[in-house]
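Record type: ASSEMBLY
Status: queued
Input:
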Amino acid sequence: MSEKDREIVIPGEIIKEGDDYLPGEGTRREGKNIVASRFGLRDEQNKLVKVIPLSGVYIPRRGNLVIGTVADIAFNGWMMDINAPYSSFLPVAECPRFFKKDDLSEYFGIGDLIACKVDSVKRKGVDLTIMPRGLGKLEDGMIIQINSNKVPRVIGKEGSMISMIKEATDCDITVGQNGLIWIKGNKVDDELFAKEAILFVTERSFVEGLTEKTEKFLEEEIKKRGKTKKAEVEGDVE
Amino acid sequence: MSKYTKRFDGRKLDEARKIKAAVGIIPNADGSAMFSFGDTIAIAAVYGPKVMHPQHAQNPEKGTLRVNYDMLTFSVTERKRPGPNRRSQEISKVTGWALEPVVMLEDFPNTVVDVHITIIQANASTRCAGINAAALALAHAGIPMRELVSSVSVGKLDKTIVVDVIKEEEDYEEGEGATDIAMSFTSNSGKLTHLQIDGKISAKELKEAVETGKNACREIYELQKKTLKGVGEK
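Status: finished
Output:
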């Protein structure tokens, strides 16, 4: 799949004539043709045509890792805000440890950030879980928000992009599918570096060969930062 | 013979003013666009789909399209009193109806898509500029749509039919006077989604006016298409 085949399509545009192909997400069949239903990039794979969204709000899918804010506390769980058009709920039953039910604010208070997984998407809302390993309240570190449609570029193919950034910046990074990213490093400088690297990727989401360009950017930044770090250390010695 | 033979700004009868469009002009919105006919400038911001509040306004069958049209105080020569008024409420409703047939909100029950249209400079045809900007902004926000909508105003000044009226033409009083017809068409199927008439016109002339408007909308659609396709090219 080459990047050049990807073309921006607009709603109502015929993106494939004839009935050899199947209409995928963001498309529909109109008579003999497949027509785009939304604005995005056309993508063809194995006789399936779909439109990759470029913009718009986050639509939760089952199994997505998201970062949410506690919006309210109910008697049996927490109402969460995950930047989606549906209300989402994290029940106590979906918490791994024994949680005393009488005061839930002991565990998560309003405004706390929690990494969770989408358990199910129903008509009326989204149910979340923190049962799988590595989920739960996010403490320290910093949070940044990007457009949720750019998350796949930040993660890269099989996590190539994000693991490169993690390695270069020496930070622990959790990317929520809803566009919230949590960065935890040893120093604030490292965290800021990671933030810059992520913004570098999101600003260039159209560019081809982004992985190589990011690699170069990281190398250059490390050189720059490496020097300043050394200078500081020497200064301390004196 | 019609008394109106030459237009105030020297345009041809079927010539619209210089049209301009841009998308992504409001970074905090989910989708945004600008559209202008000469010195009439409209900007539109789209937010959502998001949960509809108050809850009793939710529709469990499909999402709601909520349009808000407003003119800024400095958009007209005489200062406009800020806030909604009779006129802006009407235009908000009508713009919603013009766009409703193309948006597909069946997959987003109990939600609302907010469209805020702001006129920052006005010289007639503001609702048409607003509809064009809103259609672009909705597409830019990734809202599922059947197709786009293009809108234009057609005027009948005495007996002459002209495209894209300006303020002076709206106030034309000689002969039969001025009739202002705002209309919107879907981009591919060419169906009429909105038609408003202010003034007198015969059925025959109206048919002619609609045909003229349809041709003018094609040009507008080409610009809308070009603008959306140009996203990300820098």
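Annotation: The domain at 142-229 of chain A is CATH 3.30.1370.10 (Ribosomal Protein S8; Chain: A, domain 1).
Annotation: The CA atoms of residues 65 and 97 of chain A lie 20 Å apart.
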